[in-house]
Amino acid sequence: MKIVIIGGSFAGIQAAITSRTYYPQAEIVLLEKQSEIGYISGSLSLLLQGKITNLDQLSWMSARQLQEEYQIDVRCNRAVVGLMEGNQLQLADNEIVSYDRLIIATGSGQYSRYGGEAGEAPSRILRFKKKSEAEVLLEWLPTVQKIAVIGGGQVGLELSEGLIHANKQVHLFESSSQLLFRYLDAEMAAPLTKSAAAAGVQLHLNAYVQELQEKNDQVTLITANEQETVDLVLVATSTRPDNSLWDDTLNLNDDGTIQVDRWMQTSRPNVFAVGDAVQVIFQPTGEAMYISLVNNAIRTAKLAAANLAGLKEEDSGTLRTIGNYLFGYYLGSTGLTESEGIFYSAPLRTQTLELPINLFTKEKQRIKLLVDEQTHQLVGAQIVSTAPVLEILNRFAEAIRLKQTIQQLQQSEEFFHPALNLPQPLMARIEDPYED
Amino acid sequence: MKIVIIGGSFAGIQAAITSRTYYPQAEIVLLEKQSEIGYISGSLSLLLQGKITNLDQLSWMSARQLQEEYQIDVRCNRAVVGLMEGNQLQLADNEIVSYDRLIIATGSGQYSRYGGEAGEAPSRILRFKKKSEAEVLLEWLPTVQKIAVIGGGQVGLELSEGLIHANKQVHLFESSSQLLFRYLDAEMAAPLTKSAAAAGVQLHLNAYVQELQEKNDQVTLITANEQETVDLVLVATSTRPDNSLWDDTLNLNDDGTIQVDRWMQTSRPNVFAVGDAVQVIFQPTGEAMYISLVNNAIRTAKLAAANLAGLKEEDSGTLRTIGNYLFGYYLGSTGLTESEGIFYSAPLRTQTLELPINLFTKEKQRIKLLVDEQTHQLVGAQIVSTAPVLEILNRFAEAIRLKQTIQQLQQSEEFFHPALNLPQPLMARIEDPYED
């Protein structure tokens, strides 16, 4: 069997590794458009924050490793042009690659109404998901002082923190009324907002950027209420896949993602799609959504690989679990938020715990929990702390995935150590709506 | 309803708190033999290590808090003498206390073949589970230099580390061939052994102390192969409950614990027993064992309280989950160890993962997993790392408790952040014996 994988970021690399595990004899080819694989887009902010010294330091896996450890034929600088009849792939320069099974793991870029890809023109409106884009930003950096970041999600905040660390003047524009609105309810995001402002970020909330005007080595951002002129604009709005390549050959969804079934099969035989190229099921609502996260990339890639020689495993969807460290706070979320409750089928009970992280300290963790009042199951959890407590979130994610009721969670067991946690297990502190 | 609780350590305090939640109108009395409640026996080592400045700093809850926040009638300096007919309790000084429901939460002490309780004579053979015992040790400390600790479990190791920090010469005697043998397999304990020795602890493994001879302001420890003479001996062997008080009135097990059913009821109507006074079911083997851990104290206390007015909840047992920080290593264990495999009903597959803790660092975590080859369920996990990764252990404990198969764990979700963890979820790295 010859397996061809398009894309060398998380999904593509994982698809290659898992394919090798399942099919020791297969020929496995990985095609990547860029000159290398495994770039981690978070590297840029970590570099700006001084936590790494160059963009390559944080690579998950190099082409060489993938070749030597997993016998993958990695071919970089290969741009795919489209699908042909008869299990063949058309590349640039008239190259043709045949396959028995194809996995599309092309990921996403920052395509937005603010213009095309970075690098197309010498513009001061930048993107940075790809390494080449990050390098352009790093070249600009010494010559600019006032920088606008559009988007108050994880990426926009990471960049803002990095730029503050690099002594830049930062204006952050967010169209909603709060930071990290996809993951945290407003009151859970409040400490972060305060801390980002205290660090020097000029926050513009409820500030939808309608237009960018580039003129005289500056860019002006125009919102309904104000104008701000800066030296450079970084677009950190949500990513979208560019699947125009497959317009004529695969069924696409309205948002541009490739249609797949629960086994990651596209509308065309022998062709699978994974990661940021597809939608996933958000478990709490059962709805198919575009959720661009590494854990989805990894999970769907493994599934596709498992299903190449016969359908073995279905996707059970995602809880959209994230964790980050931003402006002095560890923040994370899994499952439903309260503000999403309106899309949920049952009434929700919320509970917020303010607990010291151990018996030693007054350092606190704030945990918000959402319980379905009908099933009495945990359906969402958010956590904020100055202490590194995010691993707890993965336990909440498991409780949600396994549809544990609050009563069942009472029997959870934790180790206890006075310097590390509290005597009463966290799970046993969740209130059961039954008790009313 | 009048609820009387005997004992003011973890189990007793938790029984009082939970009783108040269930029975808002009840009269609740807590009797404690010592002059205060809530002492945490780990305080002593933390004090010696300089992490706290006095023994009271780490109290879970004071008598005053319990009275004010939960309206518990806390009575200290009350020694119980025995049970009388007609729901009455005999105290010292001819005091009699009646009850509708009684919860015995008397905990355990270090009763061993090396002699009676500390304080009975001005001896250089000390115990330290109670605060009064810890205070005796602290008085001795300035005048002694060479100290022997008997027992290489959690308590013995914590004390040894504290004494090293206090610049004492420490000899640690352990009758088995390794440290922490109840919780870790030999190879998982090896880094700790090396690190304790490097810190200056003189380790005596396979060294069962047959006799202690106290003479001329010194104590000589005698094992099969050697004699060692020291200034002071600390007995850190496993604790046992002293239930001789109930010899004539309650059914006891051979190991001195009080017999209880799954609802924490003793052989006598209206009398419950919890915590270190009873045995608990070790979930992986289904065997009733004496396992002296705070999490068992908390769980059984809550159960007893829930069952006082009618049987509501059964105990599902323990996984014996522990976590500690010793000589530079975070160490923990949940469920079965490989060396216990001989007591287990099915063959076990072991797997050891050596993983960096995130994409940034070469700092490692070593995780040993045990999988039942027949059910394909996870049944045990151990972890060792220089990094604070122990919260992961609680997730393994949940997986074991919920009888997750390795295949089911493949769908586990984790957040990903390059500076905090790895892209592939930990649970998805466990090998399934099915694959052979």
Q: Please give the largest β-sheet of chain A.
A: 5 strands, parallel
Distance separating the two termini of chain A: 60 Å
Strand content bin of chain A: 25-35%
Q: Could you state the oligomeric state of the chains shown?
A: homodimer
The tally of strands of chain A reads: 23
> What class do helices, strands and sheet pairing of chain A give?
alpha/beta
User: Strands of the largest sheet of chain A, in order across it?
Assistant: 3-2-1-7-16
Question: How many structural domains in the coordinates of chain A?
Answer: 3
Highest-level CATH class of the largest domain in chain A: Alpha Beta
Topology:
Two copies of one chain form a homodimer.
Chain A: E1 2-6, H1 10-22, E2 27-31, H2 43-48, H3 63-70, E3 73-75, E4 80-84, E5 88-91, E6 96-98, E7 101-104, E8 125-126, H4 131-140, E9 146-150, H5 154-165, E10 169-173, H6 186-198, E11 202-204, E12 211-215, E13 218-222, E14 227-230, E15 232-235, E16 271-273, E17 280-282, E18 287-289, H7 294-306, E19 322-326, E20 329-335, E21 348-356, E22 364-372, E23 378-385, H8 391-401, H9 406-409
Parallel strand pairs in A: 1-2, 1-7, 2-3, 7-16, 8-15, 9-10, 9-15, 10-11
Antiparallel strand pairs in A: 4-5, 5-6, 12-13, 13-14, 17-18, 19-20, 20-23, 21-22, 22-23
Keywords (chains A, B): FAD, Flavoprotein, Oxidation
Cofactor (chains A, B): FAD
Domain FAD/NAD(P)-binding (chains A, B): 1-300
Produce a short descriptive summary.
The structure is a homodimer of 436-residue chains. By secondary structure, the first copy, chain A, is α/β, with parallel strands linked by helices.
